[in-house]
């Protein structure tokens, strides 16, 4: 079952683990302190993400106007689905 999706981070690193959930919703993060695992974190999908995922709709305003931030809101936590704020395009985490 070798799980490769474990990421180790140093405890003092200012790092937003929720962003990892956007790449792989099943990820586990080990927080390391003095070379020991002090915490295991299962990141939760954030309710709102900005400029992390991109809208795939070529007609979306964010595809046309590059200065507009890509804003997505979570619509289904279980399925990892986000909706584009501008065009309602659905982005599924881990699939796109
Ligand atoms: Zn869009």
Automatic annotation (TrEMBL):
GO biological process entries: 'de novo' pyrimidine nucleobase biosynthetic process; pyrimidine nucleotide biosynthetic process
InterPro entries named among the record's database cross-references: Asp_carbamoyltransf_reg_N, Asp_carbamoylTrfase_reg, Asp_carbamoyltrfase_reg_C, Asp_carbatrfase_reg_C_sf, Asp_carbatrfase_reg_N_sf
Aspartate carbamoyltransferase regulatory subunit C-terminal domain span: 48-92
Gene Ontology terms for molecular function: metal ion binding
GO cellular component, one term: aspartate carbamoyltransferase complex
Keyword vocabulary terms for this entry: Metal-binding, Pyrimidine biosynthesis, Zinc
One matching Pfam family: PyrI
Stored SUPFAM superfamilies: Aspartate carbamoyltransferase, Regulatory-chain, C-terminal domain (SSF57825), Aspartate carbamoyltransferase, Regulatory-chain, N-terminal domain (SSF54893)
Signal sequence segment: none
Ranges of residues in domain Aspartate carbamoyltransferase regulatory subunit N-terminal: 1-42
Gene3D superfamilies attached to this UniProt entry: Aspartate carbamoyltransferase regulatory subunit, C-terminal domain (2.30.30.20), Aspartate carbamoyltransferase regulatory subunit, N-terminal domain (3.30.70.140)
PANTHER family: ASPARTATE CARBAMOYLTRANSFERASE REGULATORY CHAIN
Name of this chain's protein: Uncharacterized protein
């Amino acid at each position: 079952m070798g799980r490769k999706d474990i990421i180790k981070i140093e405890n003092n690193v200012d790092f937003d683990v929720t962003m990892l959930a956007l790449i792989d919703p099943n990820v586990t993060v080990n927080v390391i302190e003095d070379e020991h695992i002090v915490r295991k974190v299962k990141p939760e999908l954030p309710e709102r993400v900005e400029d992390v995922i991109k809208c795939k709709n070529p007609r979306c305003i964010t595809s046309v106007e590059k200065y507009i931030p890509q804003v997505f809101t979570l619509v289904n936590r279980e399925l990892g689905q986000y909706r584009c704020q501008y065009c309602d395009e659905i982005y599924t985490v881990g699939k796109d």
